[in-house]
Design goal:
Elements: E1 2-6, H1 12-27, H2 33-43, H3 46-54, E2 63-68, E3 71-80, E4 85-93, H4 102-116, E5 121-127, H5 133-139, E6 143-149, E7 160-167
């Protein structure tokens, strides 16, 4: 049975594995391996994730996980970016588990928590040409707003992110 719950330190390795595996599966043909490795090193280390599951703030609400028989098969997180605006910062699934509704359940968990914090609107950034994420978010009512530089690019990289928004 799959459960959606707030993550604890015991989930850190599973969160890292899901995020890293899904990051490669999603972006392996869209982004350079140098960029992917840089983002993994910044965001998906065990140490960082443990810190993030034990510390919450208005701007970071912590991780939610989808757990199947004690194995993390999905992870998502969000936070408030202003008084009335929430953001989905990350949402990844085990690449073998797509199509089971886990993404929707994780998005709902993050969104409901953002609503509890007062969010009336929600934002998400999706890498341009991400044909896995874009249809998912559009099906959930997110509307494309604009294009901007992808997070963390360096000189010589020209990756773009699409900003999406929905009213809650």
């Amino acid at each position: 049975m799959i459960t959606i719950q707030k993550a604890t330190p015991e989930h850190a390795d599973g969160i890292a594995k899901v995020c890293i595996d899904s990051y490669w599966a999603t972006y392996g043909e869209l982004l350079s391996s140098e960029y992917i490795n840089r983002m993994i090193k910044e965001f998906y280390t065990r140490e960082r994730i443990i810190k993030e599951v034990t510390t919450t703030s208005k701007g970071w609400n912590g991780w939610f996980v989808a757990v199947d028989d004690e194995e993390v098969v999905g992870a998502g997180a969000g936070g408030m970016i202003s008084e009335n605006h929430g953001e989905l910062f990350v949402l990844y699934l085990d690449p073998e588990r797509k199509g089971e509704g886990l993404g929707t359940k994780l998005l709902d968990a993050v969104t409901n928590e953002l609503k509890e914090y007062g969010a009336k609107e929600q934002w998400v950034s999706v890498t341009k040409w991400n044909n896995k994420g874009i249809p998912f978010y559009e099906a959930k009512g997110f509307i494309y707003i604009h294009e901007q530089d992808e997070y963390g690019i360096i000189e010589g990289e020209d990756y773009q992110a699409l900003r999406y928004h929905r009213v809650l």
